[in-house]
Amino acid sequence: MRFNSRFPLVSRQRGFLNPNIAKFIAFTVLGLAIIGALIIAYALIFINPRLPSLDVITDYRPKVPLRIYSADNVLLGEFGEEKRSLVKLDAIPANLKNAVLAIEDYRFYQHGGIDYIGIARALATDIIKGHASQGASTITMQVARNVFLTKEKTVSRKLYEVLLANKIEATLSKDQILEVYMNQIYLGQRAFGFAAAARTYFGKDIKDITLAQAAMLAGLPKAPSAYNPIVNPKRAHIRQQYILQRMLDLEYITQAQYDAAVKEDIQVRAPGNQYNVHAEYVNEMVRQMVYAQYKEDTYTHGITVTTTINAADQKAAYDAVRKGVMDYDRRHGYRGPEETIELPSGDDDRSQAIDDAMDDHPDNDDILAAVVVSADPKQIQAVIRSGDKITLSGDTLKFVAAALSPKAKKEIRIAPGAVIRVMQDAKKNWQIVQLPEVEATLVSVTPQNGAIRALVGGFDFTQNNFNHVTQAWRQPGSTFKPFIYSAALEKGFAPASIINDAPVSYPAGNGQPNWEPKDDDPPAGPMSMRTALQKSVNLVAIRTLDAIGVKYAQDFITSHFGFDVDKVPPYLPMALGAGQTTPLQLASAYAIFANGGYKINPYLITQIADARGKVLSKADPLVVGNNAPRAIDERNSYVMTSLLQSVAQRGTGARSNSLKRTDLAGKTGTTNDAMDGWFAGYQRTLTTVVWMGYDQPKTLGSKEFGAQLALPIWVDYMGAALKGVPQFDMPAPAGIKFVDGEPYYDNFSPGDGFVASLGTEGGGVVDALSNFFGWSKNPNSETPAPPASSTGAPASPAQVDRDKLYQGH
C-alpha cells in the first residue's frame, strides 16, 4: 500500500493520553495549584487579619422598629424602616426550620461552613448546562454575606465570605448560626427574619403558621421580590410546591402532611393590614408621643410600648364605627361609581385595564374595589382584585336600582367599566356599597383611672388620618345639658324640680330682634327636671341656666369638669351645647359622673421599655380611691347618674334598653341642622363617647338625630365591651334623702331650700328660687343673651337641640 508523501502517516501512541495533552493537563493542574496556594496565602496574609469581629453576631443588635402592644399583649403596630421580630430558635416551628434547610442548605448540620460536595454538584450542573444555574452558598456563608458583606460578585468578596464562614463556624454552634439566619434574612415587604415575615404576609405569630405557609416563607430568601406572595402569588405558589416536594423527598414530612399542605388555600394579608386589630389612630398617637422623647431612635432601637388598649374592645369599637357609618351611608342613597373606565375587547388588554383601575382604587379593609364587566337591572357581574368574577343580583341591587336604569344620569350610572365597591355580608353574599364621606369616632375610658380602653379616630386611617377623638373641636349639643343640671344641683335644684317648658324671649341688644329659642316640639308646660332631661327639652335647660347664672355655670363646669374656659361661651346658648369640645374631653367629663365624682386624666401609654425589656418610663395615673382629687360632690354624681339612667331607659337614649341592663346612663346630642350627632354615656366600669359628622360641617339630614346616628354605635360597642360585666347598682351616698322615690340633697330637701319650681308663675323667673336667694326678678340681670351679628342673628347661633326622637328612635 502506497501513501502520499505529502501526508505522512502519524503514528498512534499507546496509552490513554497524548503526551502533549498530558503535559497540558499537568501544567494546568500545577498552575491551578499555584494560583490556589497564592489565593490561600493572600487570604491568610491580607484578608484574614482584616476579618471583622463577630461581635455583630454574638451581640446581635439589628435595627428593630418601635413596637406597640395592647394591655393584653396583642401587637397593634410597628414603625421603622425594617420590620423585625427576634425569636429564639426553639420558638421557631420545626416545619419552618426544615423547609428552610430543605431549600437552602439541607446538609447544614453535616458540613463545616463550606459545603464542598454542594460546590462540586453545582459546578457539575453548571458545566452540563453551560451556564451558572446553581449556587453553592451555605446558610453560614449567607450569614457572613448578609451581616458583614455586600452582594457584589467579585473574587475578593467571595474569599471574605469563605473565610468569614469558617470563622463563624469556629465561634458559634450550628443552632446559633441558624438562629441568626432565621432572624436577619430579608424576606420582602420590609420584613427581616421569618417572625416578621409571618406577621407581614399572614398576620400570624410565627408559632401559629401552617406547614404550607412555612414552605411559602422558605421560598423567599432566594428572591424576595420574585417569590413575594403579595406581589407574585403564582410564582410564590410554584416555589412553595417545589419546597414541599423537597421536604417530602428528604423525609422531613410524611406523604399525608404533603398531601394536605399542597391543597391548603393560603390567604395572604393585604399590604398595610398585617395586624389582627385595627388601631391605626392609636398607633399614630403613640408614635408621636414616643418620637417627641426619643427622636430618630424611636424607629431603630427596639422600643416597646404597652398601651392601655384592650384588644377585644378595640376590635369591637372599630367594627361598631364601621357598621354605624355604613348604615348611615346606606340610608342616604347611592352616589354613583367612583370612576368608569374603557374596557378593551381583548382579554389581556381588558385584564390589564382592570388591574390598572384597581391600583387607583385600593381596597378599604373589607370594602373591595370591583370593575363591572356586565350590568342590567337584574344582574351585575364584576371582577375584584384577586381576578375572581362575582355576581350580584336580587335584593342587593335595590340600593343601586336607580343607577341601573337606562334613564340614569351618566355620573351615577352603573355600566361596564364602572368602578364600584362591594363587600360580603354575614352570610358571605356580595352587596354593593360605597366609601362613605361622613366620619365617626369612638373613645372609651376606664372611669376609675382614665385608661383609654378603645379609640377609633375616624372611619379609616388611610382615607383620613385626622384624629377626631383628640383633634375635632365640635359643638356637643345636648350632651352638654347634664353639666348645666349638675351646676344647678348645687343651687338647690333636684330631679323633682318643676320647670316650665314655655316660650321665653331675651333681648339681643343693639336694636336687634329678641332671641327666642325654640324646640322642635310645641312647649309642654311645667315638667320635672328628670322629664326635661329625658326628652332633651331646650327651653327648660335655658331657663335653668338663666336662673343659676351663666357666669356661675361657666365657672362651675370648667373648673369641675375640665372644659376649656375659652370654648364654653358665657351666654345662654351654653345650655344647648354652643361651645366646643373634643370627644376625649367629653369622655373625661362624663367619667366624673361615672366614678363617683373624681377627676381623672385619660392616658394611653402604661409603659415604655427598650429592646432588652428595661422599663424606660411608666405611667402614674390619677386613680379613684388613691390619688385622684374630688371634682364634684359624691351626691352630685349620684343624682346625675340617676337622671342619666332615666335618659337611657325612658328618654332619647332608650335604644340602649336592647342591652337589657339598668346600670347604663347617658345623653344624646344633635346640634343645629344636625351638623353633629352624639351619644355620651357610661356604666360604672366604662365611659364611652361616640360622635358622627362631616369634617366640613354640613347637615347629616333632616331626619337624623344623635339617637340614630351615634347611639347605635355606642350600643354595639358597649354590648361587646360589657359582656360578662356584672350589673352595678350605685348605693346612695351620705347626704342623700329620698322623698316619693326621688333623690334630694339633705340640705336642699322639700321645705328646706329645695327649688320646687321655676317659671311657673306668670311665665317669668319669679319663683321660689328668686325668693330664696333674693335674686333680681330681671331675667337679664346677669345673663347676657347671645351677642348680635351684623345679620341680626346671634353671633354664636343657639344650637337648638333637635334630639326629640326617643323610645326607640
Automatic annotation (TrEMBL):
UniProt feature, compositional bias: Basic and acidic residues: 800-809
Primary site of residence: membrane
Reaction catalyzed: [GlcNAc-(1->4)-Mur2Ac(oyl-L-Ala-gamma-D-Glu-L-Lys-D-Ala-D-Ala)](n)-di-trans,octa-cis-undecaprenyl diphosphate + beta-D-GlcNAc-(1->4)-Mur2Ac(oyl-L-Ala-gamma-D-Glu-L-Lys-D-Ala-D-Ala)-di-trans,octa-cis-undecaprenyl diphosphate = [GlcNAc-(1->4)-Mur2Ac(oyl-L-Ala-gamma-D-Glu-L-Lys-D-Ala-D-Ala)](n+1)-di-trans,octa-cis-undecaprenyl diphosphate + di-trans,octa-cis-undecaprenyl diphosphate + H(+); Preferential cleavage: (Ac)2-L-Lys-D-Ala-|-D-Ala. Also transpeptidation of peptidyl-alanyl moieties that are N-acyl substituents of D-alanine
Pathway: Cell wall biogenesis; peptidoglycan biosynthesis
Localization (cell): Cell inner membrane
Low complexity: bias regions: 788-798
Keyword Mitochondrion: no
Entries under InterPro entries matching the protein: Beta-lactam/transpept-like, Glyco_trans_51, Glycosyltr_51/Transpeptidase, Lysozyme-like_dom_sf, PBP_transglycosylase, PCB_OB, PCN-bd_Tpept
Transmembrane segments: 21-47
Domain Glycosyl transferase family: 75-247
Pfam family, one: Transgly
Residue ranges constituting the Penicillin-binding protein OB-like domain according to the UniProt record: 334-438
Domain Penicillin-binding protein transpeptidase: 441-698
Region (Disordered): 331-356, 776-809
Homology family: In the N-terminal section; belongs to the glycosyltransferase 51 family. In the C-terminal section; belongs to the transpeptidase family.
Protein name, per record: Penicillin-binding protein 1A
Record organism: Herbaspirillum rhizosphaerae
